[in-house]
Amino acid sequence: MPEALPVATIRTQVTVPLTFPDGYSTTVRVFSFKGLVDGREHLAIGLGDWAGALDRLAAGGEPPLVRPHSECLTGDVFGSQRCDCGPQLREAVQRITEAGGFLLYLRQEGRGIGLYAKLDAYALQDAGLDTYQANVALGRGEDERDYTAAAQMLVTLDVPRIRLLSSNPDKAEQLTKLGVDVAERVPTSVFLSPANADYLAAKAAKAAEAEAAEALTSGTSDRAGPR
Ligand SMILES: Nc1nc2c(ncn2[C@@H]2O[C@H](COP(=O)(O)OP(=O)(O)OP(=O)(O)O)[C@@H](O)[C@H]2O)c(=O)[nH]1
Ligand SMILES: [Zn+2]
């Protein structure tokens, strides 16, 4: 039984028209909150017919498509090729607009270690460490992200059940533990470039490791055999 989440409330909601550098346009509803556990300025962004998606969910229909996207200043804003964050954000906005749902923009830069530390980690990666080893060499966790605020936003928006747009098993696992019903996991596309190949390979290996550990605990998969 998940522990009760601290209550958050909607602080403001405003409409914002968006146009991306490639010309794709959509108009979104941006929600801010009071009472999020870590006090950070996380956003929920309602995309497409998000209100209709809420109605469908309330009537017992298909849950809204939701992507918890962790902030990446270098990738999201400046088009960094070191990671896949920018194209993933762009893809998520369009897919959620088409389906109706929410993008949760989480202020957990650098998998939770912050922007400067992420840049320090890049320097260590240039010296040969992978993306996870570099965090550890800095005395930080491999991935320090916590999705409690994401779960709070979903509860506040009346979204207890979601289709999760992510290939990161930790997001599904944490959200489920926090009481969010993940009805389906919808994988993101792979955006490979010469500069992010090592990063994506390390991420895929980490995800496979997590899936295998999960299958071992739940005893539901043959993927958890000796490796
Ligand atoms: N510490 C660290 N963080 C990184 C590095 N590259 C990208 N990041 C951060 O990783 C996070 C990427 O998060 P998300 O876009 O939510 O995606 P994800 O966890 O990879 O999983 P998906 O939902 O499958 O996309 C962002 O916070 C980035 O700033 C890196 O090399 N080191
Ligand atoms: Zn990134």
Automatic annotation (TrEMBL):
<keyword id="KW-0686">Riboflavin biosynthesis</keyword>
<keyword id="KW-0547">Nucleotide-binding</keyword>
<feature type="binding site">
    <location>
        <position position="88"/>
    </location>
    <ligand>
        <name>GTP</name>
    </ligand>
</feature>
<feature type="binding site">
    <location>
        <position position="171"/>
    </location>
    <ligand>
        <name>GTP</name>
    </ligand>
</feature>
<comment type="function">
    <text>Catalyzes the conversion of GTP to 2,5-diamino-6-ribosylamino-4(3H)-pyrimidinone 5'-phosphate (DARP), formate and pyrophosphate.</text>
</comment>
<feature type="binding site">
    <location>
        <begin position="109"/>
        <end position="111"/>
    </location>
    <ligand>
        <name>GTP</name>
    </ligand>
</feature>
<keyword id="KW-0342">GTP-binding</keyword>
<feature type="binding site">
    <location>
        <begin position="67"/>
        <end position="71"/>
    </location>
    <ligand>
        <name>GTP</name>
    </ligand>
</feature>
<feature type="domain" description="GTP cyclohydrolase II">
    <location>
        <begin position="20"/>
        <end position="187"/>
    </location>
</feature>
<feature type="binding site">
    <location>
        <position position="131"/>
    </location>
    <ligand>
        <name>GTP</name>
    </ligand>
</feature>
<feature type="binding site">
    <location>
        <position position="72"/>
    </location>
    <ligand>
        <name>Zn(2+)</name>
    </ligand>
</feature>
<feature type="active site" description="Proton acceptor">
    <location>
        <position position="143"/>
    </location>
</feature>
<feature type="active site" description="Nucleophile">
    <location>
        <position position="145"/>
    </location>
</feature>
<comment type="similarity">
    <text>Belongs to the GTP cyclohydrolase II family.</text>
</comment>
<dbReference type="InterPro" id="IPR032677">
    <property type="entry name" value="GTP_cyclohydro_II"/>
</dbReference>
<dbReference type="InterPro" id="IPR036144">
    <property type="entry name" value="RibA-like_sf"/>
</dbReference>
<feature type="binding site">
    <location>
        <position position="166"/>
    </location>
    <ligand>
        <name>GTP</name>
    </ligand>
</feature>
<dbReference type="Pfam" id="PF00925">
    <property type="entry name" value="GTP_cyclohydro2"/>
</dbReference>
<feature type="binding site">
    <location>
        <position position="85"/>
    </location>
    <ligand>
        <name>Zn(2+)</name>
    </ligand>
</feature>
<protein>
    <recommendedName>
        <fullName>GTP cyclohydrolase-2</fullName>
        <ecNumber>3.5.4.25</ecNumber>
    </recommendedName>
</protein>
<keyword id="KW-0378">Hydrolase</keyword>
<keyword id="KW-0862">Zinc</keyword>
<feature type="binding site">
    <location>
        <position position="83"/>
    </location>
    <ligand>
        <name>Zn(2+)</name>
    </ligand>
</feature>
<keyword id="KW-0479">Metal-binding</keyword>
<dbReference type="InterPro" id="IPR000926">
    <property type="entry name" value="RibA"/>
</dbReference>
<comment type="pathway">
    <text>Cofactor biosynthesis; riboflavin biosynthesis; 5-amino-6-(D-ribitylamino)uracil from GTP: step 1/4.</text>
</comment>
